[in-house]
Amino acid sequence: MSVDVNLIFNGNAREAVEFYAEVFGIEKNHFMTFGEFPPHPDYPLPEETKNLVMLSRLNIDGSNVMFSDVYPGSPFIAGNNISLSLVNADMDRIKAAFDKLKVGGTVVMELQETFWSKLYGGLIDKFGITWQFSYDDGSMNM
């Protein structure tokens, strides 16, 4: 179980990951790109955005730091480009935390199965903090 930090970049996440990997002496990591997403007919990706980073992760001194570029077509807002992720192998714990944190907040994505997680969702809590929730039983090798 962990709470991870998510950093969102404006098209330069790959460069940031490589920089931080060098700074902290970490082996460079795998990059999952938006082009690797299964296509969604309502949200076609422009060709020039398919190589943008959807997810990469570095473990910096015991803390997971996740990196991605802003979703194509979404605004990038400096200062609002950091969120927290509850990553857990206990779906009931994820659901309980989600249900408590959504009170007075705004659900961005209901908890649901995605191609990368059996349970994933997101919200902004009543204090304006963005949270992501993800089931991970340890098999996600990023």
Automatic annotation (TrEMBL):
Pfam families in UniProt: 3-dmu-9_3-mt
Boundaries of every PhnB-like domain copy: 6-133
SUPFAM superfamilies according to UniProt: Glyoxalase/Bleomycin resistance protein/Dihydroxybiphenyl dioxygenase (SSF54593)
Name assigned to this protein: VOC family protein
Organism: Paenibacillus rhizoplanae
